[in-house]
Amino acid sequence: MSAPTTKITRQWVSMPGGSSDLRVGHGAIDAMGSILKGSVGKPRLCALVVDDTVSDEMRELVRRQLADAGFKSSMVEVPSGDDARTLAAAGKLCDELAKLHITADDLVCAVGGGNALSLCSFVCSSWCAGTSLAHVPTDLLAAVEVGTTPWGIDVGETPQMLNARTGAKYVICDLDYLQLDPMSDQSLYARALMATAALCDAEAAVQRLWDRAELLVDGDLETLQEQLADTAKSRGHIISSTSIATRQSVQFGQTFMRAAASLVGPEVPRGLLLAEGIRFQARIAAATNILKVDEVLTMDELLDLLALDPVSCDIDPDALVAALKNERFLRSNRFILCLPRGYGRIRPGSVDDEVLQEHVEAWCASRAAL
Predict the structure, then answer these.
(1) What's the longest Cα–Cα distance across the chain?
(2) How far is CA 99 from each of CA 78, 93, 95, 96, 110, rounded to the nearest angstrom?
(3) Which of 99, 134, 121 has the alpha carbon at shortest distance from 23?
(4) Helices and strands, counts by H and E, the chain
(5) DSSP string, 49-112
(6) Burial of 177: CB neighbours in 10 Å, binned 0-12, 13-18, 19+
(7) CA–CA separation, 100 vs 47, rounded Å?
(8) Which of 314, 307, 311 is nearest to 280 (CA)?
(9) How far apart are the first and last CA of the chain?
(10) I need a labelling partner for 266 at 20 to 30 A (CA). Which of 66, 99, 183, 283 fits?
(11) Which pLDDT tens digits describe the chain residue by residue (370 residues)?
């Protein structure tokens, strides 16, 4: 990895009904007190919500920053696993906020991974009709995705059925506290999300990611810092659009990823499956004459540059078709997929059963042969 830079990047990110203030860089936490000082009026009361993986060192660092800014903070611990994204966990957090007398005039500062930050986003979006929330992510995936699009709350056995409409008002992303191995599963997933955000946003965003791809794979920290801000800007632009179809495009590749993941198990990185979703849905778009073949090949090359290689797995085509339909019908009465029509023009579209079956069989055969 490259030597760290001391520059802190600031990016305003469009959000439904407002905006989010993102700060990313080495030592970003050291400045968070001054950033959050003006977020609420006096007296300054804060619920410091941490998950069970946050180190004592980081807890104390954030607590001191809040104290220096004049906040009276109380620490609340929540789970770090999927059990954080349940109605039971949301109810417990609400009970804690009530005990601390947190109101709409106060602050919740959430420190941890994606599950804990998503839990806080869900609760704060409704608590007292909306309470200011600051995210301090401790892993790369949370830094890329959860600030703008928190993961949903699970209901029973059904994942992510209750979603917050907004993310965090402040995101403090300190590179010193993120897991940054460029070939880890989280980094692969993060780069796949960077690709979907750029493809959904605009050709210029794709070009910037293309130019940075090799340095991202090499672990260049300054490049990662720039791309984190760029991806947040792209995702914010997508989810704050006045067009429902544009907002839905943020799910590009996700349906395929979840369906395939249910069949291959945890040994295949989810980032590679998300990249496969991009490839798969781009080919369906080309087959239905809404996307040029040259653009399909360009998307393939971008994914290759990001080290998001095709997966090797043996999946029954009928099982994958069933999994795709099951995944879609959890949230819709129609079978639709986000299909690219060009850079910045990815829109939901219906897919005929014959076309779906043909492309699933072709994908399964090609991946089994690897």
Answers:
(1) 64
(2) 15, 10, 6, 5, 17
(3) 134
(4) 14, 11
(5) EEETTS-HHHHHHHHHHHHHTTEEEEEEEE-SSGGGSBHHHHHHHHHHHHHTT--TTSEEEEEE
(6) buried
(7) 7
(8) 311
(9) 31
(10) 283
(11) 555 556 899 999 999 888 999 999 999 999 898 889 877 877 789 999 999 999 999 999 999 999 999 999 999 999 999 999 999 999 999 999 999 999 999 999 999 999 999 999 999 999 998 999 999 999 999 999 999 999 999 998 888 999 887 789 999 999 999 888 999 999 999 999 999 999 999 999 999 999 999 999 999 999 999 999 999 999 999 999 999 999 999 999 999 999 999 999 888 999 999 999 999 999 999 999 999 999 999 999 999 999 999 999 999 999 999 999 999 999 889 899 999 999 999 999 999 999 999 999 999 999 987 7
Contact indicator for 134, 189 with CB cutoff of 8 Å: no
Helix (H) / strand (E) element for 286: namely helix 270-287
Report which of 147, 220, 150, 233 is spatially closest to residue 180, judged by C-alpha positions. 220
